[in-house]
Amino acid sequence: MTENPPAKGTVGYVPGAWDMFHIGHLNILRRAREHCDHLIAGVVLDEVLEVAKGRLPVVPHAERMEIVGAMDCVDEVVTDISSDKFVMWQQIGFDVLFKGDDWKGTPKGDRLESSLGAVGVQVVYFPYTVHTSSTMLRQLIGGG
């Protein structure tokens, strides 16, 4: 006889590079935690980030996984293998996806809402932390 896995309630997914972890990252994780019963954080592979952003992250994937996984507000951490979040939904299943509002109303945000909405997943946007970003930190340390 197989046991049923425990119910997780509303499962939230928050994907990210999580490179050079900063207050903006902490903000989105904390906010996402408030809106679901089980929070999964996806840490995007180095190779996927290189294709999407044109550069490798400063902090390697394994270290970013460990950092994000150590956060009390995160229930589970997974490797995010694709820029297409529908692929991740197929792999892990979630009810709501959280993103920064810099995606809202953009072509990529519209595609995200359309593909995930077709399977009943809600996309929730949180305010982007404009005063701190990994790009800004990279520029400050001379990494372009």
Task: Explain how this protein is built.
- It is a single chain.
- This protein is an alpha/beta fold and 144 residues long.
- The chain has a single domain (11-140), classed as Rossmann fold, CATH 3.40.50.620.
- The chain has 6 helices and 5 strands; from the N terminus they run βαβααβαβαβα.
- The protein has helices spanning 23-34, 46-53, 61-69, 85-92, 107-117, 134-140, and strands at 11-16, 38-44, 76-80, 96-100, 122-126.
- The chain has a 5-stranded parallel beta sheet with strand order 3-2-1-4-5.
- It is globular, with a radius of gyration of 15 Å.
Number of strands: 5
Termini distance?
A: 57 Å
Percent range for helical residues? 25-40%
The residue ranges in which pLDDT falls below 50 over 5 or more consecutive positions are: none
Report strand %.
15-25%
CATH superfamily: HUPs
